[in-house]
Amino acid sequence: MSLSSLPILDLSQADDPQHADDFRRQLRDVTHTVGFFYLTGHGIPASDFTDLLETAQRFFALPEEDKLSIENTNSPHFRGYTRVGGERTLGNVDWREQIDIGPHREPVTEPLHTYDRLTGPNLYPVALPELKTVTDSWHKKLTAVGERLLSEWALSLGQPADVFAPAFAHDPESFIKIIRYPAPTVTPAEQTAEAAGANASKEGAAEESAITQGVGAHRDGGVLTLLYPQPGTTGLQVNYQDEWIDVEPIENTFVVNIGKLLEVATGGYLRATVHRVLPTAPGQDRISVPFFYNPSLRASLPELTLPDELATQARGVSADERDALYAVYGENALESRLRSHPNVAAIHHADLLETTAGTKAS
């Protein structure tokens, strides 16, 4: 089956007894086949989307010294600002700058697990106090949307609505990335040298001179992603039946996909789909804000027993694929951060690099 655009689902239909079953069937079918869809009817006011994008643009327009004052190299919890080229996917440089904002908590003083190192405070720029207000509101409202979607998935799969709830009951580790994909203004070699900054040698910059990705092809490792890409921009592509589909932003509409943990929980019935972001077109900046709805660091998702008619359609999860994930979410989250932010890992977690990073597949 060919596909030129993602399906559109309306969450408000789940509130209507006449349409709820049909919505759940659509939700189940589209994430069994495509793994991505547009979501409307979510109840988030249009003004919130506007505030989010405008605040993001103000953040990225701050002087460099303001952004670097909260650089993630200052945070053992991988929070704060990542300069252009400071994150990697599959070992290659992602051409974007961003700020990571998670649950604002005190560090764990006596950690029992290595992933306890991820618990800690956010870093906010003094020059933009409204960033905290806007992202706190966004986090709260999208948590409610994520919770609702998981309950609808559960019902669509013949499970109790709250089957996933225990994994999210205590200190869930959802987080926001506010991303800017900058317009290319210099040559690739100059871009890489600028991104590498004082930490890279000329030899290292030369090795990474070809910037080819906004974000490399990957599947999300968590549970559920709610993405709002800036309307009027392009870049996101989803791989469906070995073809890349362009995902055009729709105003006040989320792009939704599941992560590998939900795929494993359903025995491969639901699909975590490969996607990527292309570099921006010349002269075009692009803002994109994903919200990763994830459970507690110490939680595991239950592996469901599906009804027979669904279980026969589940593709299963290979031993290699299962071995690429830990059962406990926090172990996956820590490994992902160590791999994606090697500079932060080297500064704050050098003791883990030989024993943890690279032991699991991306």
Give structural attributes.
alpha+beta; 362 residues; eight-stranded mixed beta sheet; 14 strands; disordered C terminus; 13 helices; globular; four-stranded antiparallel beta sheet; 18% strand
Ends: how far apart?
Answer: 28 Å
Strand order of the largest sheet: 1-2-12-9-14-7-6-3
Largest sheet: 8 strands, mixed
Number of β-strand runs: 14
Q: What class do helices, strands and sheet pairing give? A: alpha+beta
Summarize the structure.
The chain is 33% helix and 18% strand. The chain has 362 residues and is an alpha+beta fold.
Structural summary, described in words:
The protein has 362 residues and is an alpha+beta fold. It is built from 13 helices and 14 strands. It has helices spanning 20-33, 46-60, 64-68, 130-156, 165-168, 188-196, 202-207, 260-265, 308-311, 319-323, 329-340, 342-348, 350-353, and strands at 8-10, 36-40, 80-82, 87-89, 92-94, 97-101, 175-181, 215-218, 224-229, 236-240, 243-246, 254-258, 275-277, 286-293. The strands form three sheets. Strands 1-2-12-9-14-7-6-3 form an eight-stranded mixed beta sheet. β10 (236-240) and β11 (243-246) form a beta hairpin. α1 (20-33) crosses α4 and α2 (46-60) packs across α4 (130-156). The longest helix is centred in the middle third of the chain and has 27 residues, at 130-156. It is globular. The model is unreliable at 198-209 and 356-362 (pLDDT under 50).
